[in-house]
Amino acid sequence: MTSPAEDVDVAAARPQPRRGVSFRDAGPPIALVVIFAVFAALSPEFRSVSNVQNIMDTAAVLGVVTCGITFVLMMGSIDLSAPGIMGASAIAVALMVQNNRNDNDLGLLGIAVAILLAAALGCTSGVALVLLKVPSFMTTLGMSAVGLGLATLMFNGVQPNITDAMLESWAVDRLLGFSYLTWIAVGCVIAGYLIQRYTRLGRYAFAIGGAEEVLSLSGVKVAPYKVAVFTLAGAFYGLAGVMVTSQLGAGLVQAGDGYDFSAITAAVVGGTLLTGGRGGILHSAVGVLLIMVLSNGLVQVGVSPYWQGGVQGLIVVAAVAAAVIPQRRRNQVTK
Questions:
Q1: Residue 209: inside a domain, yes or no?
Q2: Which end of the chain is more exposed for a tag (fewer CB within 10 A), N or C?
């Protein structure tokens, strides 16, 4: 049974959404449509069916990572552990399914164990956060190093190449024109939205980001929910690590390199605030598509890939500025 405090209505503990659709909510989808239309007009190849399929397939791993990091951002925290956790998960799954290093053939059980390992690392991040009372970016950065160290130990100087037909098929086989990885990412977005919208964990994540003090004063024990959010995020990262292994056909320590920044960029561009309490899974999913459409479009029109990192950085700075200026005008403070 749960106490009355646990069943408190968190609506009073977080900022209430405005009626109707605000520009900040409508802005990212409108931007996605406009950018797609511009590149489609500039490049016939960009608007081809095969290129659209390629965009969706390429966005799959980033979409799963962004699902995990969105829950952390909703609380107003930052998670930099994705690279290490994905690396540990990638090496772990490569060693537990059919591979060139040992005689293991655990199949789906091996995938589940790799995801559980990632969830355990995420849980450790959450426990360290609530016990040590240090900024989340520090605890998660340390956990990323732990994950990379664990992955390096399992790697042991010999790359594990997978020969498991089932895992390889995720990146190769297609359903309705899209790879299985894309459908897995769609499933994660749907699952993430359902958790956000209909579970206590999702509602409290919003409430923690919107007004953690109010939630605590209402009698809710915030710490367990913070740990649960980081555990959930770790599970998403673990699945993403498995997906990268499927794409590459091998487990790599560097499987998650760069995904933390890209996921934060996508979430913020989609409308999820770094300060928490606003946005969500669907917002971040739009952000992922926007980033991938922009990256693909720049290549299609002949812009050097070396410029894409700079463009991505400018976009996230602009998105953050657009999100915080209204709040700063209200509060007249700079955090």
A1: yes
A2: N
Bridge partner residues of 269 (DSSP): none
pTM of the model: 0.86
Q: For residue range 84-119, what is the model confidence (pLDDT) as tens digits?
A: 999 999 999 999 999 888 888 888 999 999 999 999
Q: Is residue 7 part of a domain?
A: no
Rounded to 5°, angle at Cα 91 from 195 and 180 = 50
Say if 15 falls within a structural domain. no
Domain assignment present for 34: yes
Q: How far apart are CA 231 and CA 117, in angstroms?
A: 10
- What's the CA gap between 227 and 78, in Å, rounded? 13
- Total domains, the chain: 1
Quickly tell me which residue has 């966005």 as its tokens. 59
Contacts of 140 (CB under 8 A, 6+ apart): 78, 79, 80, 81, 125, 129, 230
Name the residue range of residue 32's domain. 23-325
pLDDT in tens, 25-59: 677 888 888 888 888 888 888 888 999 999 999 99
CA dist., res. 44 & res. 317, Å (int): 31
39: Cβ contacts below 8 Å, ≥ 6 apart: 46, 47, 293, 296, 297, 300, 301
